Structures are given as C-alpha cells and as structure tokens.
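User: Run a structure prediction on this.
Assistant: Running it now.
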Amino acid sequence: MKGKIGLVVGLGVGYVLGTRAGRERYEQIKKQWLKVWHLDPVQAQVHKVQDFAKTQAAAVPQALWTGAVKIVKAVTSDGTPGERVDSTIASGKTVAAEVKQAAEETVAAAEGKTKPRTASGAKSAPKKPTAGA
C-alpha cells in the first residue's frame, strides 16, 4: 500500500513540475538529446548493435527449428516402436546440446568474447556433450 501511495505522489509531483517547466523546457531537452544521439560515436555504437542483432537474431530459433525437424524425423523413422523411442531420445539429447551451444555462442558474442556468426550461417561444428556433464 505504501508503494502505491508513493507512486501516486511521485506521479503528482512529476506532473506539477513538468507542467511548470512547460513545452519550452521539453523542447530544450529534446534538442540536447538529439544532438547527443547524432554524434558519430553514438551512431557507431547504434550500427554495431544493429549489425549484431542481424547476425545473432536467428541463431537460437534456427537451432530450435533444426532440432524440431530432427526429432520429427526420428519419431517418424522406420523401425520398431522401441527403436523409434531410442532414436528420438538420442536426437533430443543432441538437439538440446546444439540449442545450448547456440545460446552460449549468442551470449558470448553479446559479451564480446567471440566473433558473432555470419548471416550466411557459417558456424563451427557443434561440440559433443561430455559424458560427465
């Protein structure tokens, strides 16, 4: 309840101070912000983030899609029901490792530890899960 009261009071104070400052002050703040936004170093970082997003946006969803296709193929393969279950479980484990790797590569690229994958899909071979993991 105290949080709600504080929020209402804060909104009221912000509204009063904002209306006193008026449109003129808003325009001043906006003008300064646009000056900063259009600086070359800021725009360089914006382009860097956009390029990263373009290259990494599809990495994990692509791994999920590829994995789903592998699992469906394993389920619908020929063989006894037991063989299909075993094949599906094995495919599921492989897919889980591939999705995990794609997620880890995306995080590492975001942190600047590795180069991001190229948009053409070039990537390193998936790591084999270790027996102890």
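Residues 2-37 form the longest helix (36 residues).
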